[in-house]
Amino acid sequence: MEWKRAKDWLIGAVGMVLVLGVALVVLWWAASDPASADKAERMPSPTQGALPPDGLREDEVWLADLDLDAGTVVTAGSLLHDVRAVGQDIVSGPEGLVAGRLAVDATVPFEVLADELGGGSVVRAADGGQATVVRTVEALGRELRVTATGTVDVEDGRLVVEPRSIDIGGPDFLSDATAAVVRRFVTVEHDIEGLPEGLVLHDVAVRDDGFRASLRGEDVELTP
After folding, report:
1. Which residues of 5-44 are buried (b: 16+ CB within 10 A; e: fewer)?
2. Each residue's pLDDT tens digit, 76-105
C-alpha cells in the first residue's frame, strides 16, 4: 500500500513538472520576438543610407563601409597584434582600392621595439602609463646594464619613448654623469610599418602586451 502511494505521488510530481515546463515555454514564446532579420534592422550600419559619390564609373564599385579584424598582421619588417581597421567611402576600380577615410587600431608588441634596439634589450610597461627599457650599452669603455623609464608620445608620426629616469647602478654622482651619455641608447623612436601609406599615427597608449596605436588617414590606397 505504501509503495502504491509513493508511486502515485511520484507520477503526480513528474506530471506537474512537465506541465510547468510547457507553460514556461508557451509564456516565453508569447513574450519574446523571434531572432530574425528584424534584429538586424534594429542595428543599422553607421553609414546605412549613405549615397555613393557622383560620377561613379561602370567599372567601379563603391562600399559605404568596411570592417576588418585580424589577430596578427605580419609583413617583411613588421608585426602587429589585435588589428582593427574601419574604412568608409571605399571605391574599387581598375586603379585599385581607395578608402576615403580609414581608421586603424593595432598593438605593437614590446618585442618589436626590443629587437629594434638590440643589445639583449627588454621593453615592458611601467606605472603611470610609462614604459621601461632595459638594455646593455657600451659607454666610457665599459658595458653597462641600463634601466630607463619614460613617457610614451607621438612625435612627427613616430612612436617615441623619452627617458625620464635612467638607472645604471652605482653612486648617484656617477649615475647622473653617465646617464647623459647613455640617454640616446635608451630613447626609442619607432615607425609603425606594414600598414597602407597615408595613415598617420595620432595616439599611442601603453598596455600590458605592447603599445596600442591609433592611426587615421584620408584617401588611403588599400592595394598597390
Report:
1. eeeeeeeeeeeeeeeeeeeeeeeeeeeeeeeeeeeeeeee
2. 778 999 999 999 988 888 878 889 999 999
Q: Let me know how long the chain is.
A: 224
* Cα–Cα–Cα angle for 148, 110, 136, rounded to 5 degrees: 40
Return the SS3 of 10.
Answer: helix
114 within 8 A of 124, measured Cβ to Cβ: no
Per-residue cell: 176: 647622473
Q: Residue 151 and residue 17: Cα distance in Å, rounded?
A: 64
pTM, two decimal places = 0.72
Q: Per DSSP, what are the bridge partners of residue 190?
A: 159
CB count within 10 Å of CB 184 equals 9
Please answer whether residues 61 and 93 qualify as being in contact, where contact means their C-beta atoms are separated by less than 8 angstroms.
yes
Query: CA–CA distance from 185 to each of 35, 113, 115, 147, 199 (Å)?
Result: 59, 13, 13, 11, 28
Three-state secondary structure along 136-195? EEEECCEEEEEEEEEEEEEECCEEEEEEEEEECCCCHHHHHHHHHHHHHHHCEEECCCCC
Q: Dump pLDDT digits (tens) for 99-130.
A: 999 999 999 999 999 999 887 899 999 999 99
